[in-house]
């Protein structure tokens, strides 16, 4: 076996803090847990989706991944697999299945609940340094720990089957609630991305590679990397102050269905978190811990993923939520009260 690459990656440093048994609640972005709890409050939705995921969609995904992608393990792209193992050890997560797919788009994603997987696009692996790549891997591990995939699926089903749902729910005017529901769902989706950027930072424990990785997702020009200025990108978050309220409102409406926050906003939020007391406390060992029975073995790759009890624990950990319809209405009310609130994370 060839020697492993990336031996000098930050995650292998003797100074790196391993966050044993850390719970995702320790690093959630404000509003993420509340919005997710609102989705979880739909009666029976969680167990139903967990069953469908385990007995159908996970198996389809597993088969498709193995037929169409390259599976990464200790004997195949071992250096990349070792990076994933180390990131999982730092964030106290079972090692998921890992795949590489040939794709020119810089992207990575995760799926599954019991048998989780991380898919890395070849362009991403080729473009990023090991430390930047570990930030992205840590971000995806954050999604796994928070069981985001299950509730993204729930939101997608609400969007896809809304007409059927509204026709059978015996509530007058339920059809009028579609927009508030969607606004609440998309708002949570974006906040979940901020949460997972924090997970990526906790993995590498250095803001520089995280900021650099995010900056490249918004625009990378080969040969000009030395001229990229992250502070200038962060300054773009002030653009909303340069337009009138009508333009701002139209912009909010046009972008209300985006699933990811704009990169300048993510850069700003990550930098602020890196300088926060909350971040320093976690590295000092002061954080929420998962119950011992639910804490994932850091290097167990045998079954790869978050089990059903961990998903249930996530629901139990979440704060009491308002019904989803109320959450959607609250979102609309907040936007009415302050059009600029959408841009101020």
Automatic annotation (TrEMBL):
Binds 1 zinc ion per subunit. It comes from Acidovorax benzenivorans. Signal peptide: none annotated. Keywords: Cell membrane, Hydrolase, Membrane, Metal-binding, Metalloprotease, Protease, Transmembrane, Transmembrane helix, Zinc. Its cofactor is Zn(2+). Belongs to the peptidase M48 family. Residues 83-273 form the Peptidase M48 domain. The keyword Nucleotide-binding does not apply. This is M48 family metallopeptidase.
